[in-house]
TrEMBL record:
The keyword Calcium applies. This is Calsequestrin. One of its GO terms (biological process) is regulation of skeletal muscle contraction by regulation of release of sequestered calcium ion. GO terms for cellular component: sarcoplasmic reticulum lumen; Z disc. The keyword Secreted does not apply. Keywords: Calcium, Muscle protein, Sarcoplasmic reticulum. InterPro entries: Calsequestrin (IPR001393), Calsequestrin_C (IPR041860), Calsequestrin_middle_dom (IPR041858), Thioredoxin-like_sf (IPR036249). Its main location: other.
Length: 319
């Protein structure tokens, strides 16, 4: 048994109805799994919620073994279902051959870690696995027991590399061999990437993780040539500023949020049929957007870097 219960705190019968509707859709697809849905009334059952560790109203909490995972994403059955499939998987994925290694390298939108250990029985792997459970399934943990795979990754025995999204090179976690707390502490210090993608399963968590109320936001469709070009420019800017803790860029692919496009266009006064880059105040949605002089010529990385540095409009402070 992996998943025990999914619970939601709600103030209204409307939210209760929506949750039960969502539960029915998810259970229809997961009828072979041992999954139970429960509802905790936030008015009548506060003591129960407190005992269970449920802190936020209108949130979904997943109980998996001894872990409590807060689902902070879109309330859509397909999105929650995909998230649950990730929860069901083991916290650490083992890479044993070149095909699996190729798949590992293709993951660039997520924080990921890779460790090299003697075997699954190694005490050092156990510490790594315990750390993975703390972040599962929001951060992807991988490991290999194969010397030839470790050599291709330049990993030494009991060493763990941390990969920031969209970065060319990983960072080795210092101080090997590690205990669980070493890995957890390092991740907690580095869990705000310079460039990250807004994903349906974690959209609220990412949006609420602002810097001084601001987000640098880039709307770009990866499938569109102009959007792809802008994304490559964003990667270059992020790679040049990866050591800067005050820079956080959120990339939003409008194709991932078709129902949100009209809202964003109206709120920000922009046209999302072409790429847009701006600075957004997360509290009042005030925003400033970069002027694209010519759709045929997207800004260079240097031009975008300069524009971002000049647009710290609410603090009037350079990074």
């Amino acid at each position: 048994e992996v998943i025990k219960h999914i619970l939601i705190l709600t103030y209204s019968t409307i939210n209760s109805f929506l949750f039960l509707q969502l539960a029915a859709q998810v259970l229809d697809d997961l009828d072979d799994e041992d999954i139970g849905f429960g509802l905790v009334d936030s008015k009548k059952e506060r003591a129960v919620a407190k005992k269970l560790g449920l802190l936020e109203v209108d949130s979904i909490y997943i109980f998996a073994d001894d872990e409590i995972i807060e689902y902070d994403g879109e309330l859509a059955a397909d999105t929650l279902l995909e998230f649950l499939y990730d929860v069901i998987e083991e916290p650490v994925e083992i890479i044993s051959n070149d095909r699996e290694l190729k798949g590992f390298h293709h993951i660039e939108e997520d924080i990921k870690l890779m460790g090299y250990f003697k075997s699954a029985k190694s005490s050092h792997f156990t510490e790594y696995d315990d750390a993975a459970e703390e972040f599962h399934p929001l951060i992807k943990f991988f490991a290999t027991f194969e010397a030839k795979i470790a050599k291709k990754l330049n990993l030494k025995m009991n060493e763990v590399d941390f990969y920031e999204p969209f970065m060319n090179k990983p960072v080795s976690i210092p101080g090997k061999p590690y205990i669980e707390d070493d890995i957890v502490s390092f991740i907690e210090e580095h869990d705000r990437p310079t460039l990250r993608k807004l994903e349906p399963h974690s959209m609220y968590e990412i949006w609420e993780d602002d810097i001084n109320r601001q987000h640098i936001v880039a709307f770009a469709e990866e499938s569109d040539p102009d959007g792809y070009e802008v994304l490559e420019i964003l990667k270059e800017v992020a790679q040049e500023n990866t050591e800067n803790p005050d820079l956080s860029i959120i990339w939003i692919d409008p194709d991932d949020f078709p129902l949100m496009v009209p809202y964003w266009e109206k709120t920000f006064g922009i046209d999302l049929s072409s790429p847009q880059i701006g600075v957004v105040d997360v509290e009042d949605a005030d925003s400033v957007w970069m002027e694209m002089d010519d759709e045929e010529n997207m800004p260079t990385a240097d031009e975008l870097d300069t524009w971002i540095r000049r647009r710290d409009v609410w603090n009037n402070q350079p990074w």
